[in-house]
Amino acid sequence: MLAAAVLPPTGGLHAMRGDFERARSLYERARASFEEFGLRVAQASLSLYSGPIELLAGEPLAAEHELRRGYDLLEAMGDRSRFSTAAAFLAQALYAQSRLDEANTVALAAAAAASTYDFYTQAVWRGTRALILARTGGFQQAERLAREALELTEETDSLNLAGDALLVLAEVLATSGGIAEATAYASEAVHRYREKGNKISARRAEQFAGLDRGRRRA
């Protein structure tokens, strides 16, 4: 079972390089093994990898499908720690589908369940709520939450999380008209993603910052 346990995070690495077919095959192989041996916690926790893989692939509906599996199972098990993270990712999947009310409700569920010291989950749900608030006119609160999320990433060693928080803050600032500052934060996100080897997120951050346009002209 140790071999099956390493498949989902390995899938995440392939996803960052854009090999989503390989990433999916790995998490599906892990799922089959977990189901064969009746490992319910492992089955539920798999969504914490498969969901983000589908989000990275630009498939929020597939991400929602994956994450709801984990969300429901972990809630039934009373596993608040993993449940809070699944909820935070599920809120991202719902936001990506412009289902803002649902995304907000699930983000708040993540906030209620997350430990104070679960800096990763605390940053993720704040980022989604910040984006929702920015789109619904709550710019001041949106910026506050986005900056809080970025500060929380400093308590972790996750370059992807830092990149995500920087890009969220960039999007919030751009929504309220702070284009120059938004571009600077998006450019910093590019550096974090590149350092991690996350080509997909780096490309998206480049597009946001306009860096890809300069490269195409060169």
Protein described:
- It is a single chain.
- This protein has 14 helices and no strands.
- With 218 residues, the protein is mostly helical.
- It folds into two domains: 1-114, Serine Threonine Protein Phosphatase 5, Tetratricopeptide repeat (Alpha Horseshoe); 116-218, Alpha Horseshoe (Serine Threonine Protein Phosphatase 5, Tetratricopeptide repeat).
- Helix 11 (159-175) runs antiparallel to helix 12 (179-196).
- The longest helix is centred in the first third of the chain and has 18 residues, at 60-77.
- The chain starts with a helix and ends with a helix.
List keywords for this structure.
single chain; 218 residues; mainly alpha; Serine Threonine Protein Phosphatase 5, Tetratricopeptide repeat; 14 helices
Label the structural class: mainly alpha
- CATH superfamily of the largest domain, by name, is Tetratricopeptide repeat domain
Total helix count? Answer: 14
The domain tally reads 2
How many DSSP E strands?
0
The CATH architecture name of the largest domain reads Alpha Horseshoe
Order of secondary-structure elements: HHHHHHHHHHHHHH
Instruction: Identify the CATH class of the largest domain.
Output: Mainly Alpha
Proportion in helices: over 70%
Computed CA radius of gyration, to the nearest angstrom? 17 Å
What proportion strand? under 5%
Morphology call: globular
pLDDT averaged residue by residue: 94
Spans with pLDDT under 50 lasting ≥5 residues?
A: 213-218
CATH topology of the largest domain: Serine Threonine Protein Phosphatase 5, Tetratricopeptide repeat
| Euclidean distance between termini CA atoms | 50 Å
Q: The biggest beta sheet, please? A: none
